[in-house]
Input
Amino acid sequence: MHSFTYESKDSNNNSEEILGLLQFYTILSRNVSWLIGDLELVPTYIGDYHPSGKVEPPQRVSLTMNQKFQEEGFLRLSLKEIEEMLNDSLSVRRAVFVCLPEHVEVSHFHGDAESTSLQHESALHEITVLDDLIMILSSFKLRPPMCSGE
Output
């Protein structure tokens, strides 16, 4: 495994940056899904009150994904599902994203953003976010374009 660590450009608004990494590694690997553990998101602020009095739609992050995460302790999502989740999020405070081939069965997973070792034996890539640090373990030596430091 190859290791890359760098500081996020803006840890208070990093959802697009994280999504770019996930897209990069998904394209390299093909036919994969992502395990997500130790997840802490900051949802996009939509306000408490709309001047017209209409009710704002609930966010997908706080309803669908949060319920599944609470039940199972992890999420297994496609890139498209992650895009929907991150589009409703301002930032990722902490998370572990593990890229696995689609055929690998997973019945349980406990990600830990403070761990320094690979968190699943079948992982192709692992992206860990811990506040402003982004740590990448990858089976490819290729450094992602958004990763300028090591």
In short: Strands lie at 2-7, 32-43, 75-77, 89-101, 125-130, 133-138.
